[in-house]
Inverse folding.
């Protein structure tokens, strides 16, 4: 694998990380809530997709027809029953509560699906590629995943910029107390934001499961990738999140090119460097957009 | 005829601290009522209680004859109660135009629209696309009032409009109030600046340490009575 190819693959991998991170970014932007169970929800989605495939023998991606609306509704339920109690409190409450949720989810998955690793079989779609040159070829699956990530970010961004609900999101992000004076119920906004966050992470979970195998305890690692993408890109910036995902992806694939064992190490080092040199991230700003 | 807003024996507290004691006042429809008082007298708390931002612990607030008890703040704007909060609180990441648009979020019909607001506050007209964070204090205050008008309120609550602004800017802002009243909106103005508030009002209440210390028509209140009610000297003098 050449350097150019490593970079290309890294950029495409970044799409997946951005997909993970977009929901985290929206939830944080709107209500300053960090959900440490974010990655576990992705793994849950992948397992549910595997159950769907086992039951129907259909293409794993068809499970999204169920998982996206289910994730959206689950996110709303999660917000209403649990996260609403955490918003506005000291972050330590959020950390303890969502860390607890993360452990609960991992153990439920372990109970239901055992500790065995699983994968979602997407057939030849997972291996076929477009050959660009002798050294560089682009897989149809990573390319699709990348384009879907851009589509998700574009839709979110249009939603925030152009729609009545999107404006309500931004106003609530700025100042929930004053937003209520405009007739905006911030609790409704929070529920909708968490619905979107869980739906996008469910999508990312299925794409992750189609790329690599997964097990019940993998959630926290995915959470770290999502975090790193958000921090590198800059909190609150959706397109920054895409760039953050790409930087992380390239760091990992280039790291793997240098020495296969360094894949994650180089990614984390790049993240730490950005955090040290530019703590607000590459496109950091206070506002949600 | 019942008043547009009736506050009856209102108590409000922040935890252990009681901010309002037994406040009773009426705001007739189409009136302009000034609430004056020193810092900490409970003026802002009164407006927040009417807008629903502060829970009331005793008494009642009725709007158009209907009790507002238990009605969430975000639902009151739909009834026609809009608060221009202290400190302006424009949405900094939204443009001027978007701030106005979000003011109409409750979709209450009425005479106010973006052109009408820009007409009342001409200084905003050329700033439509600018981020609200990049406005001067006076521009932000005009925007905050315009944003509240977009909800077509029957009752507009103005909290410390003049705070931190140059006198010439305050004058401009107050100059817009008659036009707002002409559209049938009732005003309730809270100010520390007594002269400004009394000039704009036809009823006045003075608060002192959470209680009504004086009430009447501005023209009928003597300067001495106002000073006494404002600083609480009459209370001491009587003892």
């Amino acid at each position: 694998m050449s350097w150019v190819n490593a970079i290309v693959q890294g950029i495409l991998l970044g799409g997946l990380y951005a997909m993970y991170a977009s929901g985290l970014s929206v939830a944080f932007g709107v209500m300053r809530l960090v959900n440490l169970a974010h990655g576990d929800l992705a793994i849950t989605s992948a397992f549910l997709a595997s159950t769907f495939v086992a039951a129907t023998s259909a293409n794993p991606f068809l499970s999204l027809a169920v998982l996206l609306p289910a994730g959206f509704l689950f996110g709303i339920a999660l917000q209403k029953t649990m996260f609403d109690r955490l918003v506005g409190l000291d972050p330590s409450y959020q950390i303890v509560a969502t860390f607890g949720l993360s452990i609960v989810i991992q153990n439920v998955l372990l109970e239901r699906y055992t500790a065995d690793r699983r994968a979602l079989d997407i057939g030849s779609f997972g291996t076929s590629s477009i050959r660009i040159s002798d050294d560089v070829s682009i897989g149809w699956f990573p390319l699709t995943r990348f384009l879907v990530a851009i589509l998700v970010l574009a839709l979110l961004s249009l939603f925030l910029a152009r729609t009545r609900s999107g404006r309500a999101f931004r106003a609530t992000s700025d100042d929930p107390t004053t937003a209520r004076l405009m007739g905006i119920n911030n609790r409704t906004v929070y529920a909708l934001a968490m619905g979107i966050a869980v739906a996008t992470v469910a999508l990312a979970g299925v794409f992750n499961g189609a790329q690599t195998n997964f097990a019940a305890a993998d959630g926290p690692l995915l959470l770290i990738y999502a975090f790193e993408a958000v921090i590198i890109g800059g909190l609150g910036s959706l397109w920054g999140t895409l760039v953050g995902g790409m930087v992380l992806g390239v760091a990992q694939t280039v790291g793997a090119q240098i020495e296969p064992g360094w894949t994650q190490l180089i990614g984390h080092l790049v993240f730490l460097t950005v955090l040290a040199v530019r703590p607000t991230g590459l496109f950091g700003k206070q506002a949600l957009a | 005829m019942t008043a547009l807003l009736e506050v009856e024996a209102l108590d409000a507290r922040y935890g252990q601290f009681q901010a309002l004691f037994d406040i009773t006042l009426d705001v007739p429809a189409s009136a302009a009522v000034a609430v004056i008082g020193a810092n900490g007298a409970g003026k802002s708390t009164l407006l927040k209680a009417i807008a629903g931002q502060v829970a009331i612990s005793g008494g009642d607030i009725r709007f158009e004859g209907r009790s507002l008890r238990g009605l969430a703040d975000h639902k009151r704007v739909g009834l026609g109660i809009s608060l221009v909060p202290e400190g302006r609180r424009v949405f900094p990441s939204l443009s001027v135009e978007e701030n106005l648009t979000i003011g109409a979020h409750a979709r209450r019909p009425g005479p106010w629209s973006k052109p009408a607001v820009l007409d009342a506050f001409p200084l905003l007209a050329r700033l439509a696309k600018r981020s609200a964070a990049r406005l001067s204090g006076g521009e932000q205050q005009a925007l905050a009032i315009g944003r509240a008008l977009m909800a077509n309120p029957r009752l507009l609550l103005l909290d410390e409009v003049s705070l931190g602004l140059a006198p010439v800017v305050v004058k401009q802002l107050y100059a817009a109030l008659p036009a707002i009243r002409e559209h049938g909106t009732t005003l309730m103005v809270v100010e520390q600046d007594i002269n400004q508030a009394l000039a704009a009002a036809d009823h006045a209440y003075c608060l002192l340490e959470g209680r009504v210390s004086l009430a009447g028509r501005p023209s009928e209140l003597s300067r001495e009575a106002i000073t006494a009610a404002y600083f609480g000297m009459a209370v001491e003098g009587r003892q």
